[in-house]
Design brief:
Alpha-D-Glucose-1,6-Bisphosphate, Chain A, domain 4; 22% helix; 8-stranded antiparallel beta sheet; 175 residues; alpha+beta
Amino acid sequence: MYQITAEAEVRGDIAVLWTVATDVDNRPSWDPHEQEARLDGPFEAGAVGWSKPNGGPATEWTVTEAEAPHRFGSECALPGGRIRGLNTFEVLPGGRVRCVKTVWVTGPLVPLFRLHFGRRMRRDMLLTFAALEAEAARRAGRAGGEQAGAGQAGAGQAGAEQVDGDQAGGERAAA
């Protein structure tokens, strides 16, 4: 198993952040990670989506859980394995929300996934948090000057863990 985790504190209302994060069809308009995306039906457990990340293969995935506005998960198949993701949102004081995304990869493609996608995926998670903050502010009607910290989401937030004896910046592999 291979695990990647990233977290950031962003400014915004948790309900607006949830609405933006789960609006799959519009995600490519604000998320620098997504090239194309769609969801067939409402955002709820069992819904099937499709996405094409920048620099990665297109895939079909399923929403595995959706507990508005605090957490949602998804899963997709890999040859001989799976990718599971969990996104959580926790209200903090001062109008901030802690966003955490964890991805678990299992199966024989773990070494290839780790080498080719791992670090880039974590970096993209941090960029997505900053973009989520900015899009939520836009949808909430806040002016640019009121978004103190936008674009800084995730800076110094994600801790490094050990991976096979190497520092891996939030990535972890397990047998």
